[in-house]
Amino acid sequence: MQKPQFPSLNDIRHARVRIKSFIHRTPILTSSAINEIAGCEIYFKCENFQKVGAFKARGAANAVMKLSDEDKAKGVATHSSGNHAAALARAAQIAGIPAYIVMPSSAPKIKKKAVKGYGGEIIECEPNLQARETTLEKVVKETGATFIPPYDFMDVIEGQATCALEFLEDEPDLEIILAPVGGGGLLGGTALLSHEWDEDIEVYGAEPSGADDAYRSFKAGKIIPQTKPNTIADGLLTSLGVLNFEIIRRYVKDILLATDSQTIDAMRLIYERMKIVIEPSCAVPLAALLANKALFKGKKVGIILSGGNVDLGKLPF
Amino acid sequence: MQKPQFPSLNDIRHARVRIKSFIHRTPILTSSAINEIAGCEIYFKCENFQKVGAFKARGAANAVMKLSDEDKAKGVATHSSGNHAAALARAAQIAGIPAYIVMPSSAPKIKKKAVKGYGGEIIECEPNLQARETTLEKVVKETGATFIPPYDFMDVIEGQATCALEFLEDEPDLEIILAPVGGGGLLGGTALLSHEWDEDIEVYGAEPSGADDAYRSFKAGKIIPQTKPNTIADGLLTSLGVLNFEIIRRYVKDILLATDSQTIDAMRLIYERMKIVIEPSCAVPLAALLANKALFKGKKVGIILSGGNVDLGKLPF
After folding, report:
1. Which chain A residue lies closest to B269 (C-alpha atoms)?
2. In chain A, which residues have their Cβ closer than 8 Å to the Cβ of B94?
3. Scanning every residue of chain A, which has its alpha carbon at the shortest distance from the alpha carbon of B316?
4. Does CATH place domain B57-147 in 3.40.30.10?
5. Mean pLDDT of A8-35
């Protein structure tokens, strides 16, 4: 694939201004206990405190606010059963436009409730990818709404990149940044921004070994889709997007893996030592770091905690 | 009881300077979702992020740092199976002096580990109050260590008062402050400071209905000790201290009760909406507020989240 047009540092700064009043500038936390265990100096960017409980609020807001007035009037649409659905419904509500969210009939009630709470219109479909896509196509055709994909879309990636922008503005000496990778929206945005900010910053993706398509794609130099993912990190089940891969293969240093058992240990460490609530996907970067300590020894490392939407009745400890 | 000598605002300011480098100035968080449910504007002072995971770090540090050099050299002692034990061991470690902690043989391993981690010396005893007191007496006699009680001690109360001092410095418009009450160290310190700061600020204690001795004592005008407490709020089982009662009956507006079921609902709300980890005792003030909404309608209310030391394997949801 020829190099697509990537957003510049200036584009990302504009995105930040565009979405500024709709998102939190999330805090950065540290833990001396975790630093001691890790053997490096870790800064945690807390997107679990973000609006809708995840970094997804950034990309959705950016994509919606960039639409022309004409397109805005017809609304936005997506298929998602996760945080992107709520984030898009919220962004649309702020813009005062309709959001059509195609969700599998099997989606958890709490996810549907979140979307409805932001005024989103839910269109149910059979719980398989083909049904999702054909239903979405139908909705778009009927309403003229603009499809905003969850990660394989440059305006979404540009929005997610604002997270790393804030991170480096607040902690300009970071030598390494880790972000989890599912579809690659957050990792892509982080890698783009970091590359633009300072080419010497190393960006690592962190992925569950039970859904390691980004790892395998990165090594193979081509996209290898994920089949039958099996991991507790339920935010990282999807396959890498096309645009996301193009960024990641250029600007990411490596993809590191963590087993579910390592992820659960890291998650517990964050709950116990930092007293914050995160979702399992969020713990994968710390787990991957702790499984590869030598790479980070003595460095100043940034970890993006991607979200905090976890079913408290199903914590793995 | 004749009015004891209470610390002044100036004394509490000095305490804050004394302990400043040993504790965190904890952040204040808000949640628009919780405000909407509560019908008032709530500010949460997050002592769950405090050193040792609880406000107890303040009182213990203040009491230790106020000792004469001669007394310091002989060390400090207490009996406790809770956060005060870890807080005192830590304060002693910082001062470079011994800490003798009498703990019941039945105390949870994790509590013993915390004390040992701060270099405290654990002396085990039978799990009853008499054994704790006689063992402590023996330790104090043998070592010459100074007994630092967990709450019924003015230097400890003065230390806990620094929390409300920071709170009002950061949010000077608070009209009401709520703190949980067990022995009354935190509530006493909060009431003292608030009274000194501005007599118009109303301070409420919040107590589990299954351990409501402070409520009953407050209404009766004399201390009625707690027998057979039965509540999930395991940090609030103890009876009100003597000095604490003297402050509370003078400067606290009222004590509000919350059932365990209300406390669990409030705890879940804080986990889900604020994405932070708190211990059950910590949720009692929000539960009491939600059970008495009319009292707080439209007001600017401060709630002290007292600590975050919870057994994650035993969350009530």
Report:
1. A312
2. none
3. A313
4. no
5. 97
